[in-house]
Amino acid sequence: MSPNAPTISELIAQERRLTLPHFSYDDAYALGDLLVSMARKRHAPVAIDIRRGAQQMFHAALPGSSADNDAWIDRKRKVVERYGESSYLVGTRFRAKGTTFDDSSRLNPSDYAAHGGSFPIAVEGAGVIGSVTVSGLPQAEDHAMVVEALEQFATTLDA
């Protein structure tokens, strides 16, 4: 793990801090648009996905991304759906135990990937209702882009 990688407690604090007062269709579009804008400015070859439950509310594929990024999105998102935590946090918990998600989770790595980039969308009073996922950069950067976007987005919401 990188010396600059967030700790388990820092990852948990991100999730607590980024619980939103609400999350609508318009919110999904605004968050997705923000992520696309960030990615374009950085020339980041990413795909972006936002879901509420089983419904895909936003998807974008930027130049340099591929269908492989969509497959990674699905695998990372399934970790969020199963654990209710970011895919990066889940993977970090396994690494902290001296193992890997693939070796110890008993889940098929073709279906699940505990790599950074998928983050739970949590709403006050409702809990985790969906996910926002970025794929195309190294896992720490995918995760950081999602967190940065959620931090900016959260400041625009009224309670």
TrEMBL record:
<comment type="similarity">
    <text>Belongs to the UPF0303 family.</text>
</comment>
<dbReference type="InterPro" id="IPR038084">
    <property type="entry name" value="PduO/GlcC-like_sf"/>
</dbReference>
<protein>
    <recommendedName>
        <fullName>UPF0303 protein SAMN02787144_103846</fullName>
    </recommendedName>
</protein>
<dbReference type="InterPro" id="IPR005624">
    <property type="entry name" value="PduO/GlcC-like"/>
</dbReference>
<dbReference type="InterPro" id="IPR010371">
    <property type="entry name" value="YBR137W-like"/>
</dbReference>
<dbReference type="Pfam" id="PF03928">
    <property type="entry name" value="HbpS-like"/>
</dbReference>
